[in-house]
Design goal:
By secondary structure, the protein is α/β, with parallel strands linked by helices. It is built from ten helices and six strands.
Length: about 220
Amino acid sequence: MRAVIFDLDGVLVDSEQLWDEVRRSVVAEHGGRWTPEATRAQQGMSTPEWAAYLVEELGARLTPERAADLVVTEMTRRYAEGPPVLPGAEQAVRTVAADYPVAIASSSPPVLIDAFLSATQLTGLVGVAVSSEQVSAGKPAPDVYLEAAGRLGVDPASCAAVEDSTNGLRAALAAGMTVIGVPNPHFPPDEAVLAEVAATIPDVGALPSALRALAA
């Protein structure tokens, strides 16, 4: 293992419920209708992908561009007083960064990734941060993980990826990485997908010890 790549939402920031709440509100306010599968379907999608989903699948009477703008603006407003960083997340990144180059590969837009890095003062330690907005396809496609590995200059097969959602796990597995699952308690990942990972941990604070075990 030569590098560690973190997902953001659900791994370092407790934001999956927040994304869900904001998107639901935008859909309801603009004539759409939420469906039972909508939440899980959007996890891992890039901004253009989930914005199109709100309009084309859920019926929000907006353009995808306007839907994206409304959701991201509200998420940015809520992050203004500090993103909801998960307990132990900042220290986990610092501990791992002492031994490995680290990156973030997230479906969040760059403005929210930057908000997290600034709030935790991790900008100098996280050498690479990639949003799925910056690649061809969001998760479960492996693009964002492959891009992060490429920017780090590390073979994807030599990277560990830390993920919480079904689509995120699929993306990291498709990239050929050693995947560590941190199951999201609010939206648990598919058990069949979780069974494919190298290790499962209860929270990101347990990551350093899991990495040591895998390295051994």
